[in-house]
Amino acid sequence: MSEPRSPSRRFSDLVEIMTILRRECPWDRQQTHESIKDLMVEEIYEAIEAIDNNDPAELKKELGDLLLHVVFHTEIAREADRFDIGDVIYGIQEKLIRRHPHVFADTRADDSSTVVRNWEDLKMKEKERNSVLQGVPDTLPALIKAQRMQEKAAAVGFDWQTWEEAWPKLAEEMEEFRMAALKGSEEEKAAEFGDLLFSLVNVGRLAGLNSEDCLRLTNRKFKQRFQHIEEVLHRQGKKLKDATLEEMDAIWDAAKDREGDSS
Predict the structure, then answer these.
(1) 8 Å CB contact between 180 and 192
(2) What ranges do the domains of the chain cover?
(3) What CATH class is the domain 11-96?
(4) Could you tell me which of 256, 250, 253, 248 has the C-alpha nearest to residue 230?
(5) What is the tens place of the pLDDT at every residue in 140-196?
(6) What is the CA radius of gyration of the chain?
(7) Cα torsion at 29, 34, 39, 44 (round to 10°)?
(8) At what angle do helices 142-155 and 112-127 cross, to 10 degrees?
(9) Residue among 209, 170, 207, 208 at smallest CA distance from 192
(10) Which of 19, 126, 17 has the alpha carbon at shortest distance from 78?
(11) How far, in Å, CA of 77 to CA of 147, rounded?
């Protein structure tokens, strides 16, 4: 059993605590990269939720949880003599310096689009990639992946200039999905719906929107309004299955009016 200790603001103390936990805590000791990877994903989404809620106190806590995962994975690797926290810190510093030659060297970049283009060029050369899309992880959620692929293609010039220019393609995909939904096979409907979603992400991106953020906001709005329907019906002594669609719509509209939202 280790000596009692108090928290500090030193990063080295966090690393030391993780080392102690790996040695003395049965649960921490049995974890592997694979066993905690999904927990790390969960922490990322909790941090995103704190950002969406504009909750700095919660964000501070969630960033601490993310930092814990960095230290946890690094300690597992250190025990196997693969790398340590110093290697992680050195590696990210080296990459930031190398990928920002307009700051730390003599390359010129007067706007953010030039910075992005230079970044992608450097990544292609460093990793000897054959495609600018190779760096987009297959494990990303589909909306995020669609937007990231579009952004990377745009960085090398494959893009419309405005969302208005992309709109006819969206209209085309919408009609193709409508026709597939009317008389196409399941495979055709799925393919055309995917094309429609991809085009919608593209139009939103060109309008300066992040599709994942937008849909997450709408999901939250739907959840709040639907739960309001449940609460109102419960107060009225009714169950959802006993209410008519007209009754539920009226409560939904009342929730919209209360929020001052026309959508």
Answers:
(1) yes
(2) 11-96, 213-259
(3) mainly alpha
(4) 248
(5) 889 999 999 999 899 888 999 999 999 999 999 999 999 999 999 999 999 999 999
(6) 25
(7) 130
(8) 100
(9) 170
(10) 19
(11) 32
